[in-house]
Amino acid sequence: MHMLKTLASHIKEYKKPSIITPILMIGEVLMETIIPLLMASIVDEGIKKGDTVHIYVTGAIMVVMALFSLAFGVGGAKYGSIASMGFGKNLRKAMFENIQTFSFANIDKFSTSSLITRITTDVSNIQMSYQMLLRICMRAPASMICAMVMSFFISPRLAMIYLIAVIFLGAALIFVATKAMKYFQASFKKYDKLNESVQENVTGIRVVKAFVRGEFEKSRFRKASQDIYDNFSKAENIIIWNNPMMQFTIYSCILLISWFGAQFAVVGDLETGDLMALLTYCMNILMHLMMVAMIFVMSSMSIASGNRICEVLDEKATITNPKEPVYEVEDGSIRFENVTFRYSKTSEAPVLDNINLAIKSGETIGIIGGTGSSKSTFVNMISRLYDVDEGAVYVGGKDVREYDLETLRNQVSVVLQKNVLFSGTILDNLRWGNAEATEEECIAACKMACADEFIQSFPEKYNTHIEQGGTNVSGGQKQRLCIARALLKNPKVLILDDSTSAVDTATDAKIRAAFKTAIPGTTKLIISQRISSIQDADRIIVLDDGRVDGFGTHDELVENNAIYREIYDAQTSGDGDFDEGGDN
Predict the structure, then answer these.
(1) Of 84, 73, 93, 75, which is closest to residue 139 (Cα–Cα)?
(2) Distance between CA atoms of 274 and 155, rounded to whole angstroms?
(3) Rounded to an integer, what distance in angstroms lies between the CA atom of residue 147 and that of residue 163?
(4) pLDDT, tens only, 551-572
(5) H or E segment at 391?
(6) How far is the C-alpha of 278 from the C-alpha of 256, rounded, in Å?
(7) Cα three-residue angle 305-311-317, rounded to 5 degrees
(8) Crossing angle of helices 242-266/272-314, nearest 10°?
(9) Is 542 left (phi over 0), alpha (psi -120 to 50) or beta?
(10) b/e for 231-264, b at 16 or more Cβ within 10 A?
């Protein structure tokens, strides 16, 4: 019931066509029900008695009824399509909008491929089912009831054959649909795996080719595709029993009605026209039972899809605005007070463990540590991408949980470890930082991020089109564009999460020098694996296993901190970078 209530709430402005459609379907059914009676009247009253006037008049009425039936059918199809397509549109919109409110913790619960399947395949199933519900599900039962009533009106004894057939077939269809449902439910989880395979392969096609992993990816795709095939085959092997049961029931009814009907006609208990009408109603009833069978099959798939859609719609953002949010960040000062954080509430060891430190507004802070030391997690707390489990993070003197989220994230600008550009021009991407930014402001930000030089080398310069994911620019170019995008926010805090790793050291130094002169009042936090990128920072944080192992200037840490000294010695002795891996 919860699923139906949740889905139904998104019909909204399509309630009117949703009501009109079944009314038109009932009108079509009534016309189709009356036509066999008129036909029987033509045979019994017109042809048998030679009354041509009756034949013409009744025939004309039949033509009018048929035209009305056609008009009702066309109208039902039109309004049914409007209602179902609109319903699907609303569901996709609602899901997408809810996903936009998700925190990182919410997003971690759903894979990207699963969300894509839910917005596309699952919504299409619900959309199709809704159209069937409005049209077939209303038409089929109404037609069956009307035909059954008319059959009992003509001959109660022969109509009992229909009643027994309907009960038998209905029970059989419910049994078959119930058995098939579990396989349909399993199939949609397999769709997630298939989409995941396709998405990862297309996104990482260059890596696949570089490592000659084409055959492995083909094998992975075949397995995901085969799993879907196997599940649907099992479901179809059960559903195929619908057709033989239907055919058996239909032909049995025709034979029984023809046999008994002929006997009744011989003794005068049944007119020939009435027998023809009964046979017409027989086909009507049983053909609509086949439609009901289709609805059962589609419903089996739709229940699984509906549950998956409701999981997304019901998901509540773990990070929301407070009742009376603060809309201004005073400055770029940052303070961690007894901060502890776990990604999973059931984890024993925290990812961040009792962090205490204070950063002054305008300071440049370097952050360094080995893989798994929680550097990215540390800075994610500042812009409230995750909420702390214990303690508090303060920005501008206030707990980040007191701020309006949009205000906080506009003033705490983050260039994440995984840089993403979107399809569109370079200017379009830069204006993600500030939608109202002029071209001159965009150029100034790019000069600060050392991006203007390579942009000017493009034929279309700032109007150069960026492919999806930024595949037509290099890693270093992508990083510099992302930095420029963040600078356009004019933030009070700028966080660079290993965002110059693909940039050469000379360009890295130019970017840092530009920061000193152009945004001296902005607090800058720079995560890097290179000592050279952070040694000129006002202070440096050394993280180890989620704890602050050291916090001081470069000279102080070289002298007093074993982890920092080890990294420094490794990178200045000519052995290479201490940590060339990724970060969590």
Answers:
(1) 73
(2) 9
(3) 11
(4) 999 888 888 888 888 888 888 8
(5) strand 390-395
(6) 12
(7) 150
(8) 160
(9) beta
(10) bbebbeebbeebeebbeebbeebbebbeebbeeb
Are residues 114 and 193 in contact, defined by beta-carbon separation less than 8 angstroms?
no
Tell me the three state secondary structure of residue 433: coil
**Type of residue numbered 198:** V
Closest CA to 134 of 70, 79, 74: 79
Q: How many other CB atoms are found less than 10 A from the CB of residue 164?
A: 14
> What single DSSP character describes residue 121?
I
Residue 38 CA to residue 32 CA, distance in Å, equals 10
Chain length of the chain: 584
| 193's tokens | 């795996």
User: What's the distance, CA 393 to chain centroid?
Assistant: 32
Q: Which two tokens stand for residue 536?
A: 């000129």
As a whole number of angstroms, the distance between CA 182 and CA 174 comes to 14
List the single range of 114-123, 305-314, 575-584 with lowest mean pLDDT: 575-584
pLDDT at 575 over 60: no
Amino acid at 536: D
Number of H helices, E strands in the chain: 22, 12
Q: Could you read off the pLDDT of 153-198 as tens digits, one per residue? A: 777 777 787 778 778 877 777 777 777 767 766 766 676 677 777 7
State how beta strands 398-399 and 390-395 pair.
Answer: antiparallel
Report residue 308 as tokens.
Answer: 């998956």
The answer to whether the CB of 154 falls within 8 A of the CB of 275 is no
CB 318 within 8 A of CB 384: no
**The token pair that represents 88 in the structure block:** 């699907």
Three-state SS for 412? strand
pLDDT at 481 over 60: yes
